[in-house]
Task: structure prediction
Amino acid sequence: MAESWADSADGRTLTFMLRPDLKFPNGRPATADDLVWSMQRVLKLNFGNAANLTEWGFTKENAEKTIRAIGPRTLEVSLAEPYPAPLLLYGAFSTNVSMLLDREQGEKNAKGEDLGNNWFKTNSACVGPYRVRGWTANDTVSLERNDVYYGAKPALPRVIIRHVPESAAQRLLLEKGDIDVARLLNSDDLKALEGRKDIRIEKTAMHGYIHLTFNTTDPAFADPRVRMAFRYLVDYAGLAKTVMAYQGVPRASVVPIGAFGALDEKEGQPFALDIAKARSLLAEAGQANLTRKMLVMSVTPYPDLAQHVQANAAKAGITLELEQMAPAQVFTKARAREYQMMLINWGVRSPDPHNMVSRHVMNPDNWPEAKLAQYPSWRAAWQDQAMNELGIKALMERDLDKRRSLYREIQLKNMQEGPMAYMFQVIRPMAVRNEVRGFEMSAFKVGYETARK
Result:
């Protein structure tokens, strides 16, 4: 959306010049005032995604002073600290908290103090290549080409996204040609599609994880030896060949492969299945006969992974009761700290290590009243002030070799003491019919605007 940007000499001001050809689907020109309203709206509503702004010092109280339009096309942002500009661009200004919404539509359709939130749930008024034509919860989203989009005109006039939760059903629809892309196939169905001449499988390594999270308000999980024991209850190599084939690669470090400063594959995954080691750690912690409940998302591959952990835990003397529920329910429990342990996922939208470290290692306020629900570290009720300080030091370090060294220290310590046991770095597999071309994928985006058939 911006044709240029600049940072001030002191690193405390960013200035963005918006493109002159930005328009909303109704044809109204978009302005910096719309963008200011959109970003301030995120802070005022204070939903979970507001964390992408608040972690950089923006608040609903200072929003009007720190995010301003100084011209029809010029946005000025004032920073509390001289944060590295490229990191800010990735961490905040290329995420959904900086989406350009139509202020007129938002205010016109507002209900009370919701700033148009209820209307935006099923309507779109932004400057992207597509607009929402229809939305039926748990069924279908229909996208229609935005003919006043500033970029290259999308080849497809419409895109229909269907909610088909069963992998086998998705595969059948794909094989019959009733759908063009299947995004949630399990390993068995993906394997069955290998070798077909009319379908190809594309894989992208994501900057995200499937991991165990432990609530450290539980006295047992407050002991790092218990958390460490679970790292030895996973047959990473075996799962990588079966349940997680096509779905992920073993990874224990908080910084994913592909990010700056990430440990290499060997150093970033030092664990292997070792029941005796797990049993010894539990005995040292005085938790030789532990019984706990684990929440599990009901979508593939989580039930299979949970059963795997459950079976190995039983061999080490741990009784795990599994409770499956829809992903939304699991995340609701996580955000309220209403769990003992869970099998869950997390992903980031930038290749900088701070994006994982800031949420999984750092925790600015551990009090329950803080309700920092978008911080998995807070959800786990885990805080280490030394790690907070180390994370800030790494964030602000300008020397790349020193910064890499700091993140190495963070990763090694976090693997031993952190509140999450990372199992797999996620791979995004998609089965695509060969008549579909130009369907772009990256670690941070699936784009429809370049697709054609």
